[in-house]
Write a structure and sequence with these properties.
Strand content: under 5%
Largest sheet: none
Structural class: mainly alpha
Shape: extended
Number of helices: 8
């Protein structure tokens, strides 16, 4: 990370995926229409920092990490209110549960069990392309380009 000042405060905060205003401003109108992963991620920390005289960096990097498409199944976790005391209680319980509570009978994580819409397996890239609904030639070219970048030790895609 590059710092521009000798003295200052670095404020790290959550994302702003639930703020249509910030998504439209920094990423674009198309991003503003994408539903948030966490409805409580409204960008309050970003507003706080800017109001205190700070400036933001790399705000266009909203969804660079792994992001799951919304499930069609009801999500009981999202029905819980965003109350800090309740969050602490749930964390306390989860940290004490046996790890096998978070795996299915095949040893896969619960994300794969409860999100079959994002867990796809196939014997070939062509079969995988068919399963996820993309052009097989495009998927093959993408994987080949990635493998070549790994072999070359550099990312040719900006």
């Amino acid at each position: 990370m590059r710092y521009f000042e000798r003295r200052g405060v670095v404020l790290t905060t959550g994302d702003y995926s639930a703020s249509t205003e910030l998504k439209a401003k920094h990423v674009g109108e198309d991003a503003a229409r994408i539903p948030p992963v966490n409805p409580a991620s409204t960008g309050d920390g970003f507003h706080l920092g800017e109001e205190a005289g700070g400036y933001t960096l790399q705000m266009d990097r909203l969804y660079e990490g792994l992001r799951f498409a919304p499930s069609k199944r009801p999500d009981l976790i999202k029905l819980l209110p965003t109350v800090p005391a309740l969050n602490r209680m749930v964390r306390f319980l989860v940290e004490r549960l046996p790890k096998n509570c978070f795996r299915d009978i095949h040893g896969r994580g619960v994300d794969k069990r409860y999100r079959p819409d994002v867990d796809h397996r196939a014997d070939t890239l062509e079969e995988l392309a068919d399963a996820i609904g993309v052009d097989p030639a495009t998927l093959r070219a993408t994987v080949d380009r990635w493998n070549q970048n790994v072999r070359d030790g550099k990312d040719a895609d900006p």
